[in-house]
Queue: 2 jobs
Job 1
Amino acid sequence: MDDSIVMHSISSQELFNVKVEALQDFHIPVWVFDVDMLRIVWANAEALQFWEAESDTALYDRDMGSEMSSSVRNRLNQIRNDCQQNSKSFSENWTVYPKGKPQTAEVVLSIIQLACGRDALIVHMLFEDHESSSETLHSAQALMHTSAMISLYDRNYQLVYSNPAARAVAVSEGQSLGALLKHRQDLDIIQKQLDKGGECMVETEVVTNQGVVWHSMSIQLSPDPTTGKKSILVSATDVTERRNAQQKAYVLAYSDSLTGLSNRIALLEQLKRLCNNPTAKFSVFFLDLDRFKLVNDSLGHAIGDSLLVQVAQRMKTAVAHRKAVVSRLGGDEFVVVLDGINDRDASEDVAAEILFALEKPFNIEGHLMRIMPSIGICQYPQDADNSTAIMQRADLAMYAAKASNNAYCFYHSAMNQNNADRLALENDLIVALDQKQFEVYYQPRMCAHTDTIMGMEALIRWVHPERGMVNPGDFISIAEETGLICKIGEWVMVEAMQQQKIWQAMGFDICVSINISPVQFNAGSLVDIVTKSIESSGCNSDKIELEITESMLLGDANIVFETLNTLTDNGVHLAIDDFGTGYSNLAYLQKYPLSVLKIDRAFLANMKQTAILEMILRTGRVLGLTVVAEGVETIDQINWLKKHECDELQGFFFSKPLPVEQATEFMQNFTPSFATDKAA
Ligand code: C2E
Ligand code: MG
Ligand code: MG
């Protein structure tokens, strides 16, 4: 027997060409591991005990490779190579699992040559003092049993090690960090953070064998405990349930329950976020539906709600191809935030897209209705530099659009002043009636066939003590919003009716028409007021015409029908004013006792597009209505209208609205065939 070697197995004699006998008496486990065969080929008594082996042959027969991951195999090969190259020993902490129980210790590894010439590893196991070894043991146990998913990746994000919890959800063995993360850009974020501070926290979606879930990950650069190389330690917990609950709470808090759009809170947060970015540029479109309240009041909230839902859908679709978010503030107010764009031309394109989307009539439970949106546009940063000012200014621009009858309007600084103006006007309006600041002007309406005066339209004027003449366009909407229109409208009615009586007494056989606001119509007392006014003024009701608008016919059909019939029973005639701008529903025209259709002057303003004008004229004729063209300003318009058999004409061509004395003079001095004279 070779005196240099004490062997435990006969075959071992051929295995070593170095002395290992001294190792037999070591009080620590020592064994020789054949990295190629993945077997222990020699072990001392302590090692047998450590591996809980009945005999050395039983231990040598154990297939150590069966439960060894490929990364451990690779690691062992690598250590052998390192030791061969450096002829040095190597030390690191290992956790070994004799009979499945984890044992952690520092191991010292070095090369030993087998008799056949191949190199094997000789392993010395150094347990630390009791306390610290139990600590390592405990941490290894914790690693095995914790529900936290712990993985170690190399610098290329390839998996080096994962604990059972992480392995349980992996889609494949050795799933890399890149394959785990659902969003590839997360990897770049992690990389940047690690480069900066060596650690980071990420909460993101990951791909597991249970599908895509949310993981909260604590990530840090740390040396691989076995190789000492820099690697990435990831400790993750599944936070899907919390994320889902948060998501639900978020949806509730940040979305509008009717339309599903973002709500006011979400919008304000979005604006604040954008304003915090010094390089941001964006445009805000504040949209309001004119006369929506009327739909709600007359057709009921369910129809109003359905209309809003359809409006929301169309708006979303209209801007879907852009970086835009549509929100609903409440009521009929919508806001579109367009990120990245703040130049005028591009914003105009977007406004046109939104308007185009809302142009076609909406069909709500068989009610065909058009809406007329007004859009105010405010741009960041040139118009306002904070979220509150942006909203306020977009709102102002929207009001300016409404007031100017334009579909959209850009904010400009004069509007802030206008807002203060509006408040002042509102206060002044309250006392205007008592202080007799109103006057009624009259504008003549001519017969297109006989060139004679058929009637006079009563149009209110406010002679403000400081501002001078204020036009109805500047105060009727305020009077309507404050409810003052009912008293003001009643005053106009009595004035106009008294004037009819006076003119009749003077021999002018003309009709006086009076504008009725939707607010007066919906107040419920209109019939009483008309009846009383006819009585108190002593007018000839057959010569009184009330101008109502299409929107008033939208309400409960029975109530509308009864109101209109009672009015005509009183002898007055009914005209539809501004026809063509609202719902233009011909069914309404047929159903109710109407005599006159006044075509809105917008249609006359564009004589290049006469198709609609022709259609309205034809419809009026078929329904037996007297058709009046408003806004007649030129002889060409007159000639066209005469040719197309329009019945009556009203406009600046004949006369502007005049104070009562001048209107009387106009009638006194009037000579027929004016049109021929002027044309000549
Ligand atoms: P409206 O009832 O459609 O009245 C016609 C408006 O068109 C008048 O404006 C008139 O001055 C204007 N107009 C008439 N011919 C021409 C023309 O050839 N060219 C142009 N550019 N404009 C023309 P006004 O007097 O400023 O009244 C505006 C609106 O205010 C009226 O439109 C009516 O809706 C409302 N309004 C006026 N008076 C009263 C009133 O007493 N009560 C109510 N509720 N509304 C009134
Ligand atoms: Mg009118
Ligand atoms: Mg009109």
Job 2
Amino acid sequence: MNGKKTALITGSTSGIGLAIAKRYAAKGYNLVFNGLEPNGAEIAQSVADEYQIEHLFFPANMADPAQITAMAADSLQRFGSVDILVNNAGIQFVSPVESFPEAKWDAIIDINLNAAFHMTKALWPKMVENKFGRIVNMASAHGLIASPFKSAYVSAKFGIVGFTKTLALEGGPVGITANAVCPGYVFTPIVENQIPDQMKTHNMTREEVIEKVFLKEHAVKEFITVDAIAEAVLFLTDSAAASVTTGIALPVDAGWTAH
Ligand code: NAD
């Protein structure tokens, strides 16, 4: 325990989560890293070295409530509190509903939705005791609007927006805020990995998938950067407005949901 605030970010050894972790590291927070990248420990260590911060790397499988609870307990033991929780870990699978594999449906709901419940439940009592907590759930434009062939993902992301609003109502009187961020397409492994399935499902080339599937609905025809998403998370946890901004689902989506 070093008197500094602590941020726990799930899925923070890749993509958006890693960008968020770096922003908190730059502000001197203690960090709890999580993720299943095989080199996750080295990624976490290199961020900690670069910014001279204390950290824990805990590769809990977010599909397993027992591992989530253990990560929460270890984090509280090491740092005394977790002040910022970013429920960010997520996976995707693209398929028409009639051939959507049951195991993929269950994994998406477990990792993208149920994990946020287990993580939040485990850390909530200490936040209440401290009269301080900032929770950000990584939803998606797909938490506000649907696309075909993503039934499990859209269901999980709409669910997490509802979960966020409920947390805001329960947390408001006890010093806890909860918000969701709803990114459009950000070019990370979760998007890269969809390209083969999208090519198959839509019968398109890689270039056509990027132009006609990913960027089609963006008013600004660009991928969103991981830094833009990290900036939004910082705003919701660390700005002058953060103590009264709660229960929102903030699109950072290049105009996608303006349709
Ligand atoms: P990513 O694949 O780069 O990162 C996902 C992270 O989650 C990785 O660290 C991965 O190891 C971790 N993860 C996956 N399954 C896990 C499990 N079972 N246990 C522990 N960790 C696990 O993808 P990203 O784009 O950075 O995605 C981060 C979040 O942003 C996800 O919730 C995703 O749905 C959301 N999102 C992404 C986009 C986008 O276009 N990239 C758009 C909207 C929302």
